[in-house]
Amino acid sequence: MGLLFLAVVLLIDVWRLSPLVAAAVVSAIPLATVAAQPLAARAGSRPAAAAGVILLAAGLGGMGLLPARSIVWAAISLSVSGAGLGLVVPGLSRIALAGGPTAGASTAWARHAGLVFGLLMLTPLLSSDLTEAGDRAKLRATSAVLDSQLPASSKLQLAFDLAPVLARPPRKGLPSFSRELSSRPPAEAALGGRLDSIVQASVTRGFRSSFLVAAILALAALVPLAFALPGWRPRRAPALALAVAAALIGAEVARGALDYGARPRVYPPCAKRQSFPGSGADPTAQRLVLEGLDLVSCRVGKSRERLVVDLAGAGVDAANLADRLEGYAKRLSRLPDWLRRLLGG
Question: Of all residues in the chain, what percent are helix, strand and coil, respectively (each to 5)?
Answer without folding.
Answer: 75, 0, 25
